[in-house]
Write a structure and sequence with these properties.
heterodimer; A: alpha+beta; two-stranded parallel sheet; about 40% helix; B: mainly alpha; 11 helices
Chain lengths: ~260, ~220
Amino acid sequence: MRQSNTYILIFTAAMTVVVGGLLSLASQALAPAQKKSIELDTKSAILASVMDLESLNLEGDQVLALYDKRIESLVVNIEGKPVETNEKGEPIVAENVDILKNYKKDPEERLYPVFKYMSEDSQGEVTAYILPVYGAGLWNSIWGYVALDNGFKEIVGVSYGHAAETPGLGARIATPEIQDRYRGKEIFDESGNLVSVTMLKGEGNANLGPHEVDGMSGATLTGRGVNDMLENYFSYYKAYMEKIAGGGSMASASM
Amino acid sequence: MSTETVEKENQEVLQAPSEDLLSKRRKRLITDPLNEDNPITVQVLGICSALAITVQMEPTLIMSIAVVFVIVFANLIISLLRNLIPNRVRIIVQLAVIATLVTLVSEVLKAYSYEMYKILGAFVGLIITNCIVMGRLEAFAMGNKPYDSLLDGLGSGFGYAWIILVVAFFRELFGSASIFGFDVFAMAGINNFPTNGLMVDSIGAFMVLGILIWVQRSKTGYVEH
């Protein structure tokens, strides 16, 4: 009886129904909590580029409230023009734009989210523009958020993440120690040309210029990945930056 | 009050012929896999995950909890169903039970510990292919009673857990100079402790594991034939 084909069929069918039902139930029940975790993860990373989120020691809900209060977002295309709806006419939310999926498209076709860090007095004044960046490290993807001041002159702060850089070497890009080095660095030169910010080879370099950041010893290739990532994305956002800074010339904006 | 005690005593008398809840044999179900029959160091199973997730202590701990959970419940469920499972599809049934439990763990992690989900995501899914889990189902749960199977699951789960935690301890200590993310050397006043790049690589795990196996076998006298 236990070995008959009918029994096997009934047993496996029943098992499939039970297992399938159980998993879909769990998936349904956990979906809201998962969505919130992902949202919190994204929003914390965005906020971390302009403030020291870790030492503030906020609860998840407080982070979300802070985000709602201080961040306004929009999506632009490569020409710097705002994009509000997708091909189907549905509204695009900057927080939901998948940077990885966009990274796989041609730069001209990508969506570029911009997160505006508003001043505390809620006068509608932008303190910093936070731009998501994405690229390839030594082993796997690296990504992050770069915050620029409202004239797009200086870097206010960065927060980087990585999938699989070497712990203790390339993985240091995710630590405040490395990220603090970017603060105050300039991405345009005096005549308004985009030069980005470059992480040098080796650690302990003296006399760093306004476009240079001290390197990570033993992680030159990760550093190179970060450099490419920044340079690429600054160039993608260049049209938008010039539009906001006014007049098309970054020189006038940076003076 | 007094009637209750009397009842209790009666029950004990009734149960006396059956085996103790933690009889010597049952204790061995738990203690054997911890040392003499350890799934990693003696049976040399589950090595892949022991290499992949032991760079730091915290993800290793989460992974240990996940594996213990999966192995205990898979053992229990399969043992409860052992007289119903058709012999010809038993491996598929075992796989379905393991996969369901693993998916549950992964979904719960994603909902409540997203940081850990990001680190462990792929490896939690790979518990499905962890030979220890399936090995216990096939070798033990299919032929033993639920309670014994539960104990066996606990034993094998903890046998796996303590080994990978020890490996992770040394790898994080020498590879990242920290324990659970705390800079222990800086706290002890030793600055600039030179971290060893080998330890954060899989090679480091092999070395620590090799030394562990050596120490253990020289103590238990276990020899492979």
